[in-house]
Amino acid sequence: EPQLVESGGGLVQPGGSLRLSCKVSGFTFRMHYMSWLRQAPGKGLVRISGIDQTGNADYADSVQGRASISRDNTKNTVYLEMKNLQPEDTAVYYCARNRDGLDRGRGTHVNVSS
User: Is the dihedral angle over the CA atoms 85, 86, 87, 89 positive or is it negative?
Assistant: First the structure.
């Protein structure tokens, strides 16, 4: 059974940065595309970034230029770095196996506020 555990969220001031981590187990990490998704208060789940098995990354328009996804196959971990955070980035952030988000962790809260 896949297990994904996100960490690194918290309270961030507007304009600040953070790095989220997601440690996975229960499946062969290096063989899977990995995604980061987020759910803002009162809104639906949205995929914001993904990285394939060879390290090719993609980003949603909402985070393009501010986000950087990476993975360490030796640590079974995927990362998401975000800079210039704004209040609209406030959300629960999830990592997931594949693009559909069905196998995802419990999430980590990011609150961007002064």
Answer: negative
